[in-house]
Amino acid sequence: TISPAGVIVNSTATSGKNVTLTNPVGLATDGNSNLFVTSGFNILGQGKLYKFTNPNLNTGVPADIIDISASAQPPLSNPTSVLLIGNNTVFVSEYTTQNGNLGVRKFTIAGDGSVAVQSFLTGIDFPAGLATDGTNLFVCRNQNNGAGAVYKIPLAAPGGLTPTSPQVVSIQAAVGDAFNFPWGVAVDANK
Predict the structure, then answer these.
(1) Which terminal Cβ of the chain has fewer Cβ within 10 Å, N or C?
(2) CB of 57 within 8 A of CB of 63?
(3) Is the pLDDT of residue 123 over 70?
């Protein structure tokens, strides 16, 4: 359960862990009823990605709380959106970072629970919303004055791409229109 102060009350969890969520923004669930939540928006270098495993549907108390981002170097900074693909691949957009490496990170969770962290897209100003059509990752660039954009990146592309990489396509607004502060993106079945 979550208190009004944003504290996850977990005294009966098998792990015995409790965490305090600070400005949680991103939220996703997988096919096993696990909940993935970002914490630390507007706190440079202190962002987290938590996995709340198998929450009890009556009490809301999870069996365990896992800090998926514990091995991320540098630490997450201002994590915004969370996108889960399958049960083991998680993308997180970072709105700003301490080292200026704005972008999207990919977390791959192995069967033994270990986590591999990869920088997937760097150099994008103020990345926000994430979506997928199963083949591509779509990322919003949250800027004003017509500088907002949506990027389309093949999921099979290597990590460390930038907006100017050949694999990255910038989807522009219609002629005469402009994207101003796009925050969310969704993809329908027609792609």
Answers:
(1) C
(2) no
(3) yes
Tell me if 184 sits within 8 A of 128, measured CB to CB.
yes
CA nearest neighbour of 90 among 38, 127, 152: 38
Q: Find all residues with CB under 8 Å of 112, minimum gap 6, and list them.
A: none
Q: What pLDDT sits at residue 54?
A: 82
Say what the pTM is: 0.82
DSSP string, 101-148: --EEEEEEE-TTS-EEEEEEEES-SSEEEEEE-SSEEEEEE--STT-B
Of 102, 85, 43, the residue nearest 93 (C-alpha): 102
Other C-beta atoms closer than 10 Å to the C-beta of 41 total 19
For residue 151, what is the DSSP state? E
Contact yes or no for 98/82 (Cβ under 8 A): no
DSSP 165: S
Q: Is 60 exposed, middle or buried (0-12, 13-18, 19+ CB in 10 A)?
A: middle
DSSP letter assigned to residue 28:
E
Residue 97 and residue 99: Cα distance in Å, rounded? Answer: 5
